[in-house]
Input
Amino acid sequence: MKIKRNKNYTFFLALMTAFALSLYFFEMLIPQPLPFIKVGLSNIVVLVLVFSQFYKEALFVAFAKSFVGALVTGTIISPTFILSLSGACLSCGFMIVFYKSLKSLTIFGLSIVGAFVHLMTQLVMVRLILIKTNNIFSLYPLIVISAIITGFITGWLAYIFSTNVNLRSVYVKINN
Output
């Protein structure tokens, strides 16, 4: 019985990761307003997992989508990969902490927190590994505005997804 449960759990993780990667690759087709600003469609899956209290699974998907995405696009072990991975994992961690601490936080607020932490992490990483001057932090106002806009869009899409798909019931069905 335990082997079946582990297989089903693995299937659930693979399903969530595949969905996140599908959104990741779809977003590559959408023009970006600025080279360093994306909506973050693949974060919808991570956001809904956190909101559904699948914390470990959310961290796994955040890591896996960045890693597999970099493998497929050929950016593995590049600054792009480091920025993506650090932003995805730290924003997921912060969303978990915020959601556990503030149970009244909506999926929109959670998404904006995630977007802000993701963009700020990337800004700090750019400062640490690429641009060795503090002038990079002059982008802070743009980061805040972008985080609010992209966080709201991602939150809205995650809200639509979570109202139509109950991840708890999907998880239960897969594991039975």
